[in-house]
Structures are given as C-alpha cells and as structure tokens.
C-alpha cells in the first residue's frame, strides 16, 4: 500500500519525539539515583513468595495493611551474614536501597539486612481458618472425590481476560481434543474476587452437564492469590458436589482452596492436564491392550491349535493303533478261519475217511455176510432140499410104514370084524380108525411144514 509524503513527515516527527525503552529505563535509573536521599533506609512489610537461588534470595514484601507490594532481593553475601531465615508470612523490617533494574524495567529493594517483627494479623487469621477447616475434616483425603477418567464437559472458573484461560484450553484440548470446555468468568484477585469466585463456582456446580470444575488463575505474589484463602471461596469449593481441581499458579505454598479441592495443580496448564485424559496415552494404552489381546489371542489360538494338533495326532495314533489291532484281529481271524478250515477239512476228511473205511468195512462185512448168508442160504436150501427129500422119504417111509401097519390092523380088524358077530360095529370102528389115520397124517404133514419153516 502506498504511503504519501505527509504521512511520512508525520511519522518522522513522531520518531524524533518518542523515547526508546532503553533511554526511558536509563532516565528512570538516573532519577532514582539522584533522589536516593528521599527513600528510607528501613521498610516494614510481610514476606511472601520467597525463592532461594544460589546467588541470592528473591521475595515479595507486602504492605501490612494493604495489597501493595514491592519485589526484594538479598544477595548471598548478605544472606549468609543473617542468622534469621526468610520465612513467608512473617512481618519483617528490611534495611535496603531502592534499586532499578534497567534491563527488566522493574524496581526492587536491594536488601542488606532484615529483622522479623512477628506474624502479621492476616497470617494469624489464615492459620486460625486452616485449623478450623482441618478440625472439620475438609482437608481429609477420604472425603476427596475421584476425578472421572473421561469427562465430556469441564467447567473452568477463571478470568476470561487472563492467560490462564488459554493455558487451560491448550492443555485440555492438547490431551483430549473432543472434550467440551465451559468457562465461568470470575475476578481472581482483589476485593471483588471472593464473591465473584463463589458465584462462578456455585453456578458451575449447578450445571448438570459439567463433569469436573477447574478453578484456576496464573501465577503471582501471595497477596494477589490471597482470595483463594478467603473462607467463602474455600467453603464454596469444599461444598461442591462436582469433583474439583484447583490450580492457582502457586508453587511454594498451598492455598486453602487447593487443600480442600479434590485435586490440586500448580499451574493452569497442569490443571488442564490433570482434568483430562491423555488421549494419546489412552490410544497407546488401547494399542498396547490390542497388541496384548492379539498376542494373547494368538497365543491362545496357537496353544489351542497345538492342543488340537496333539489331540488329532493322538487320535490318529489311536486310530492307527486301532486299525493295526483290527488288522491283527482280522489276520488272527483269517488265521483262525484257515486253521478252522484246515481243522475242519482235516476232521471232515478224517471222519469221512473213517466213515468211508467203516462203510467199506461194513460193505465188506455186509458182502462177506451176504456171501456167508448166500453160502448159508445155499447150504440151507441144500439142507432144506435134503430135509425135504429126507422128509419126503421119511414121510413116504412113515406113511408107507403106517399105511402098512394100518393095513395090517385093518386086516386084523377086518379079520376081527369078520369074526365078530356084529358087523355094523366093526364097520363103524373101521370108519373111526380111518378118521384117526387121516388126522395123524394131517398132523404129520403140519409138523413137517413147521419144522421146515423153522429151518428157513
């Protein structure tokens, strides 16, 4: 963009009238040195924010009756000569020179010596309140609520104009980008800070969507953080139903608000870190769990597969053994069958041979018997024929003999009959004798027949 001559002229005039920061600081230093006789040698105040370094000790000196402060430094060469230790909360008198640090543009007291005067009234009030809260158990660990591991909405009580707001936001969203941050604006130092903080804390606690309440502010001197020691603020935090985190940027001394909070943090950044889960860590943890699950799964599957392989191998071996046993049994059965066949064949053959032999013997015997019977029958027939011939001859002989005898008797009978007077009686006797002869002949023939039948 073009710049006209008038603008360049005005810019040149302003440059000539403006002082540099170095010139300003040098002039301030010169003015303070020239007016050094106007400053007192001794200053009284309350010590706070004492920080010891190797080359010296820095601390803040706060006005006993107000909130005004001035920074102090006592170099190690002077500090080593002092028997008293520098204790925060003490009211002290310091012997010092007013010093202006040109590089930093700040005024401080260069302390040569100091003497404790005693605890200030505000320090005594703080200790009294601390003892009361401790007696009520508000500092007890067992009453502190655990923070939810994965909050979805974080309520932040802080100044909407301070750097703490951005510090908390960056820390929270750096760890958990998806978390919701709800800001409750409050004054965090000065006389209006206690009621403002109490109202904001109660408002956040009544919000149902808020999972954690973070009360925070940036670092500062003890006097600027004193509102977090005020009883209303402390009790408002202790009464919260929602888990609380307090981080007021005070490293060396804990405020009462931090003591009653469920979790304390030293800085707004740490408060944002404490209130949120590290999603990268969660993702790493999930990845680790997945890896372990995968490894465990692989190991289990591998073990199961190995077990199955062993079982299959054992089953195969068992089946092979069973098959071998079956083959052996089949072979034994075949051998038995062969032996049975052989034995059966042998037994059958032997028995058949025996039967054949017996049959042959029986046949031979039968044939021999038949031959014998035939011979016997022939002999018998011959004998029968001989007997028949003998019987016939005997019969003829006997019949002839009997006939002759009968004839003789008949002749004698006839002779007797003839000689008898009764011829009829003689004739009848003859007829009776004839009947007797016929019966005897029949008996003789029957006897011959029966005898012949007995021989056959």
UniProtKB/TrEMBL annotation:
Gene Ontology molecular function, alphabetical: exodeoxyribonuclease VII activity
Any coiled-coil regions, as ranges: 319-372
Pinpoint the OB-fold nucleic acid binding domain residues. Answer: 19-113
Q: What class of enzyme is it?
A: hydrolase
Tell me where on the tree of life, at the top rank, the source sits.
Answer: Archaea
Query: Residue limits of the Exonuclease VII large subunit C-terminal domain?
Result: 138-410
Q: Which InterPro entries match?
A: Exonuc_VII_L (IPR003753), Exonuc_VII_lsu_C (IPR020579), OB-fold_nuc-bd_dom (IPR025824)
Q: Which PANTHER family match?
A: EXODEOXYRIBONUCLEASE 7 LARGE SUBUNIT
Which protein is depicted? Answer: Exodeoxyribonuclease VII large subunit
Q: What is the lineage of its organism?
A: Archaea, Methanobacteriati, Methanobacteriota, Stenosarchaea group, Halobacteria
